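Page 42, continued from yesterday. The earlier attempt failed because a stray header line got pasted into the input along with the sequence. Redoing it now with the clean sequence only.
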Amino acid sequence: MAEHEDWTAGDDAQLRRAMATLRHDVEAVPLPDVRFVRARGRARRRHRFLGLTAAAAAAAVVAGTVGYAAWGPSSSRTPLTPASSARTAATTPSSTTSTTMAASSLDQPGALPLVGEWASSLELTGSVLLTPVKPFGPVECLQSEPGTKVQQEEITRAPEVQGGQVRFRIGSGQDAATAADGVASDIAGCRLAPGYKVTPASSGTGERVYSYTAGDAGSGWWAVVAGKHDVVVLQVNQNDRPKSGFTLAQVQELVSIAQKRLARYGTGTKATASTTSSPTFTGPKAVDEQMPVVGPSPVPSWKLFVAASQWRSQPLSSGAATSAGPGAMEGSTAVASCETDQEQAGIGGRVGVVSVRVGSSSTGYVGKQRVQLDDSSGADVQQSYVDARLAEAKALFGKGCSTGNGTVKSTPGPTAGTWRLDTVAPDGSPIFSEWVGVTAQKTPGAVSTIVVTKLADPKQGFAELDRLIMLARQK
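This time it went through. Structure tokens are written below.
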């Protein structure tokens, strides 16, 4: 092609200015890979209610104030429940069971519904976990908070149900019903991302219920409940479901329990419940098993670790027995990719690791658990220690890294504080995957990091990780 003879320096400058403007516009609103949008959207849909991150919603061009729950939590996972049975459990009427549960459980103090009441109302099967969120986080969709947040909890049932509840104490001289109307208005007009649609489902004295759909990010329900001096916001998320399997009647049953609890234990009542509580569990219970703990002396007690025998499952070990091996740490307390010995050496407190394997071969290891413990006498110091470890894990595992073995890509799990780390080697070797979860434990000052490195069914990696985390939280 012949070269144009009439192209001038002025023409060149004009084209450069046009291209620079286009570049600025494109960078201002990037178009992300659809796999990224879907993956992040699903994960954030699961996590937003309890506020750990302020992040974009499922579409990368829409920003909003959202959150991610403290890890001590969501949420509890169990081996993956078949979708068909989950739908049956969610849609089969059992009003008698729900009513009986509510009547017998209302004598247990608490201004918010208890774990059994959630399970009964929504007919949840399998293991259900209700965990306090500390420190409190923002609630998505709310433009402003109606009062002082005094209680926040996360509910989780594997594989796809996650939600939460938060209670606001309304200030003196303010009307709780009016404050609840403001919250309901925020929720009704909420647009977290393109495709996020909120639909009014019912309203009555002191309560409003809304359903929502969010495309690939799932579906669920919102409810706002007003007491005498409190406003409660309930949220139920079913991730990856375009339409919720829960019915309006089931959500209204939960709302009814919330109303009764506010009337009995809410702000200003004689039986006002404490705003702090310990994690509550249904499903598998953690057991004690004496195991070798490796680490600098003195190591944390073996009682703080998940029993090696409880790692055994069909998805993880093909049903084969699991046991604690001697480990091959050679003094290292780093248990997952992106961690370094130097970094771990700078962390105070006690630390120990238990390695779990199938059989007795050195190639049979399926994972590890590390416990970090601040056994100081001060509760505030212990809580600060736990918070620091959780924040470090989020910063470390949440973004991936580059190591001498290759590039580590991080994918967030469906539960707060869980990730899959995929190490991609430059020489084309098979990808090495680790499922990593970090959680606070029942023992003050204790934090667990669980790493699963080998599974019979890798598709169940997050479900198995969540099952082990649920057991660790009970320690």
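Notes: The two ends are 75 Å apart (CA to CA).
Reminder to self: strip header lines before submitting.
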